[in-house]
Prior knowledge:
Blueprint: H1 6-9, H2 14-32, H3 47-55, H4 58-82, H5 90-115, H6 120-146, H7 157-180, H8 186-202, H9 204-218
Amino acid sequence: MSFKTYNQIAGQKVQRIEAISDGVFAIALTLLVLDIKVPIGETVRSERELFDSFCQLTPRFLSYFLSFMTLGIFWTGHTAQFSYIEKSDRNLNWISLFFLLFVSVIPFTTAFLSEHIHFRLAIGVYWLNIFLLGFMLYVHWRYAARKGFLSIPAEETGSVDKAVRRRIVIAQLLYLGGALLCFVSNYLSIFVIIAVQLNYALAIFSGRTRRESGRADKL
Length: 219
């Protein structure tokens, strides 16, 4: 009978990490809205004051939308990877857990950004959170691929691996470009990052590229 260590038998269930991932994402998405506080009734005595109080919440609504998109995109990316990952081990579990660590920090960095939206440091802290999410997602995929945990037909392995890695790298470069725009304007930086997220969420440019490629093949 062969002898196995604890590290060899731990973390075998892929479904367990998927379950906790969905739970952490759900909680983080819910916590985001708690940063938006309703104006206190005693301080509002007219429609004008209520309108002014509502307008003061604009940075928080903007940060909320930004972070909702961020979490949605990374949840989609994490889910897409697990659609190909059929095996796991202790190390892959911990890579996923560290990824979730940075997911759980998003509500804090969102609140920090909304409270100090006029400071470049707030943009930098938020971008660092995004970078660490992307870095851990990349490490997660590369580890699973190297260990042979993926279930992909042989003829599709190269294209799927390239598509996953390319999406992460390009997205991170675009996020970096958007973050650097804070030296021009913080709001410009945020709007560019949101534009990048909308593109990845709606597949605006990738869809156009596929259509153009399809037309070219017919010529």
